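tool=predict chain=A
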Amino acid sequence: MKNVPELDSLISAAVGRLDAGDAPDLAYVSLTSTGGDVRLTAVAVCVAGGTSIAEAQQRLLEYSALFDEVAPGEENIIGDVLEFAGYFDRRADLDEAGTKVQKVLQDACGAAGPTPSGFAHSLHRSMTTGKLRRAFLSIEAFWSRRAPGNPQVFWAHMATAARLLGDSSEPGFAEAAQRCHDQSRA
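tool=predict ok
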């Protein structure tokens, strides 16, 4: 798939849809309902969200079967699947500090033990899009209500993550950080 004039036009239209407040899956459905190529439109919406054309095209390869299985008029299914899977997500380029936080959170999850697939998917999306505080809060909330497999290691990693993330005005962050610190000393 090359950067053809049609792609440029679709990217402009996708930017307009996203700027108007459409979620990526709705922008996708809107653009394909006017006869846009389903694969090219997916790339356009992904690019409009901030991903490079090359990366959007590369990511789309793993969804090839999806496009073959959905009939014309079912573009909303494609949009839903791509949105849920995180295809449209803009993946963050983490700096050294962000990479360290991400690693500590991954280590905490490893010490916690098995997690439900939906929760793991949500965490993966938060971490790859650079929403590390959101990932921290989700992990803390989830494992505060359950017994992690290796609690000492888990809470030590979580306390380290809280320290690395620093102060935050995000609702609930200070309390979650304190709980992690307290648990790491228990």
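The CA atoms of residues 11 and 58 lie 17 Å apart. The two ends are 56 Å apart (CA to CA).
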